[in-house]
Amino acid sequence: MAKYKMHVLVCGGTGCHASESDTLLENLKTIVADKGLDNEVQVIATGCFGFCEKGPIVKIMPDNTFYTQVCPADAREIVEEHLIKGRKVNRLLYVDPENKEHISDSKHMGFYKKQLRIALRNCGFIDPENIDEYISRDGYEALAKCLTEMTPQQVIEEMKKSGLRGRGGGGFSTGLKWEITSKSVSDIKYVVCNADEGDPGAFMDRSILEGDPHSVIEAMAICGYCIGASYGLVYIRAEYPLAIDRLKTAINQAREYGLLGQDILGTGFAFDIELRYGAGAFVCGEETALIHSMEGLRGEPTVKPPFPSVSGYYEKPTNVNNVETFANVPVIINKGAEWFASIGTEKSKGTKVFALAGKINNVGLIEVPMGTTLREVIYEIGGGIKDGKKFKAVQTGGPSGGCLTEKHLDTPIDYDNLLASGSMMGSGGMIVMDEDDCMVSMAKFYLDFTVEESCGKCSPCRIGNKRLYEILDKITQGKGTRDDIDSLRNLSHVIKDTALCGLGQTSPNPVLSTIDNFWDEYIEHVTDKKCRSGQCKALLQYYIDPENCVGCTACARNCPVNAISGERKGIHVIDQATCIKCGACLEKCKFNAVFIK
Amino acid sequence: MGQVKSLADLRKIKEELQGKMSLREKSNNPESLVQVKVAMATCGIASGAKQVMDFFIEEFDKRNIQAVVTQTGCMGYCFAEPTVEITLPGKEPVVFGYVDTRKADDIIEKYVKNGELVEGIIPVNYETIEKK
Amino acid sequence: METIKLTIDNKVLEVAKGTTILKAAKEAGIHIPTLCYLHLKDLNIENKPAGCRVCVVEVAGRRNLAPACVTECTEGMVVNTHNIRVLNSRKTVLELILSDHPTDCLICAKNGNCELQTMAQEFGIRKLHYEGEQSTYREDTSPAIIRDVDKCIMCRRCEMMCNEVQTVGVLSAVNRGFMSVVAPAFEMNLDHSVCTYCGQCVAVCPTGALTEVDHTNSVIRALADPTKTVVVQTAPAVRAALGEEFGMEPGALVTGKLAAALRRLGFNYVFDTDFAADLTIMEEGTELLDRLTRHLNGDKDVPLPILTSCCPGWVNFFEHQFPEMMDIPSTARSPQQMFGAIAKTYFADKINVKREDLVVVSIMPCLAKKFECQRDEFATNGNPDVDFSISTRELAHLIKQSNIEFNALPDEDFDNPLGESTGAAVIFGTTGGVIEAAVRTAYEVHTGKKLEKVDFEELRGMEYIREATIDFNGLPIRIGIAHGLGNARKLLQDIKDGKSEFHAIEIMACPGGCIGGGGQPLHHGDSSIIKARQKAIYQEDANKTIRKSHENPYIIQLYEEFLGKPLSEKSHHLLHTHYFDKSKDIKVVE
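Structure tokens for the assembled complex are given below, as produced in the milestone run.
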């Protein structure tokens, strides 16, 4: 057996994959082999490191060197310089945005300093396609412990004690859910893993499945043991081909090892897992809709109760948990509920993975203890706002959440605080907005999403959200009135009150929270017909400054609608009635004469 | 690999596998371990640094010492190759010159195990980017 | 029985565990408006997708409002059905639905009979606060049903009928969000689907999204054409329901007024489909006895059970779904088509009118009849045996348009020779009736004995699948009955699996039989109406002096003068048909 002296970990997550990390991996392997180092250096693909902004990532162990934005062409230099000569390739190291220094060890990077990785513990550390690497990191130890040393009830108690709450958005106690399902009497029960991640910008579930599929498999088996199910299903979006591949590989490996199948670890417990593919409907993340979709029906929610834990998949008791929730389970069993409960806030234990996106320097996937403040996440981990702009708001909880502002920055993040601030945890999407973002447009963006993703079953969601969108659109077109804002409010409340499922009940949140937090902006849009961020094109007006205009006619020649008049060498004027606000004049003017007001 | 039939099986497999992964596990937390850096530039390799490095890796394993052995570039002490930098947990790094396998054995037994210095220390330290 | 105490609008109630708020409120005399909800109690059909959200109520301690139709009562629950929050939400939801609904009410087929319109009126909607884009779709006209789904409100009643009750599976929700609508897969046209035209979707549609193809104008035109002799036949179930369209109690029998009205409309001859029903019994009953005798004599190739074939929805169903079993149903045509064939031969000759100049109109409780009369095999040289089939509802419109005060009409008789019928024919209108009529005749023909008691109570009722054994003088005849195509499917599956023990089975596509047909006056969810019609049908039978088909003097005369005997060559030619494998006819267009 080769005893490797060095391990080269190449991120094989979808983000880095899209930046050719697969070619990079191949190049590294080839060059290492060419140099005769293949007995000394192990090159593997891992799951996501989270720092997607700077991908593709390559990490070299044991010296813990963290290379960022590595191209396939960099492979040779890494091998020749670093692997052979032991010299780090400086240009590929992360540069601290503050003091411009090169940082070699990820531990010293702001992005990682405040993170605590439980759900993501193996992502970027092990080869997700190799069950051995998972086992070596206590993999399946928790399942073994449950099966051989604990009764189902003891496991459930442990889960309840840990305080783990559903990471898919609802925040329901996982232990309690397991307990309810375990108490439902039925010949057949099911464990379902909800991998129908649909929030715009959120990709933690995908990353876990790509980077550490066995943790989910192990947790599902543990859940099966607790509730008395021997059959598990993973409902995963078909748009996650890599996650599907890795998960399939992992399931097969677990079967080969006898960790799935009949008589697991000689205990008589049987459990196996199959995949079900979703076609990418956001509403199928709602558990009843998900179950209907798995049954081959239209992905539509039904009224709860009955809850799936009583009557779910084919009317059998079904325990549905989200990927991230499951990923926490083996650690809780291994390290104990008390350890887990020591992390986080009073009512929200453990960590939460967030997908940082928007106008933030370090876009990526992070995991922090509950109770970390938004400020820490945005400024310390996220590296602050891009291009030194001013922070305006952060949307948490995706389209179901609300936006939080400056005044919420020091709020410790947990389920209850976010809810109290008018937003929600959701699945952990976090989209940061700066001064250039128009909050009315932001609300419109999310409504556009919910209108598209509504299943159409209940009238308030099907028609109400469409109407909300239309009013918002009217406002961004400069045609809104004060009454429209009142209409938005009334309609939002009715939709929240009457919609059938979580999607509809939360879809007006972006509208309500932007009205609450950015009332002035709405008023500006409807009374002054102004958009301070300049995002609402219809509200912009292009002017030519007579001081700067030299009469070169460049603007007039490039105006697609002939809205600009003026003699050569004379001052030009834009006819506001004709102008379509395309911005061509602004782009063409070399004398800074065109400006927007 | 065959089927994992019992908890004992699983633990056995895990132990076997941990050796493979120990390099990664250890490097996650090198501060608490013995860190050995072998200078592996042309000069070092020509003077037998590779054998020295292999020796360290194998011997730490045999003698059950938790250590991280990494290679590094030329430390600038080409006259004294192979050179090895050893950092004991919580202590300043010490550089040894003219290290062959015999001397390496000496270093492990005396310095690493007991903190006794051995001959051949190069007293001048140097800075790396991280320590700047 | 475990009970629960709760408070609704300050009334303390005690209800059985599992009762919904809607039902509890109803018991307490509190009316909670509903739109998508549909409960046909006597037929055990319930639609409760909780989609319209009109029935929301406030439950103390609950974050949002609760849909009363599906929310079960819990101990100590405090419900408020009409506070400002509830009323505002309910009205807003209705306004939203209306904002995505065409406002052509005045010229809509359902004008005055639309549940959405009624609700808007009840709610006092005067202004839509939220207006915007409307979802529009391609209109789809089939031989029997028009889908104008711009008017679909996604109540899903049709979908439930088509899938759960009928198991035909043509209609289901398609598209997402604002463009969601109920349609055949891939938004195909109905006539490219396996639709049976049973019309149960039309029967439950609260709006004008699903309506029948209206042939009243064609009828008016034929009546106005001096070169045409126009003959009308009216199905048994029509007389038990038409009165409802004129404000009469459900179950009012209007046979006499019906004949009078048809005469005043200008039909040259007012006949009765019941006559043809008697004829059907002669042919189908004889076929049953023939198959039975051959089977008893050891001919194992003779397929048993024999299945009735008078229901066109049912015929469409097995042609699409069970093509391998096409030799099982009787080859006898439906009464509508037997009537047409006899009218355009025997009767045309009698009155010396050329086939082309004779127009046969049928009044049917059914929409599938519209399709049936357009089948190629029921036409001679392109001239159909039955020219136009209109529904009970269309007839009511026709009467209203023609300034006839229906309620003031005297009772009149049908014309002869095709207007005389027996009690056996009348009961064709309800589930169980055809087989009872067949038994009355088959018994006497087979045993040569006179039936002492013609009422076979064991064949009657509303149970979906019924079975009975009739003693044919020592020979036990096993009879099966199913209504609703989903139940028919179960019996067919048994036959397919070789598990069926029946000799004869009656199948009706519509729940309740023709009295619950897709062309009947709308019941708007009140299934007691269908029960009342059934009662009326049996009443009409009991009132008849002749109650066995083979005793109908005009039937006897028809065989003597024209057909010879049942299953004769002429009968085969005019009164029997064959079926087509349509399982592969489903095509995707566009």
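Residues 33-131 of chain B form a domain with the Glutaredoxin fold (CATH 3.40.30.10). The mean pLDDT of chain B is 78. Further analysis is deferred to the final report.
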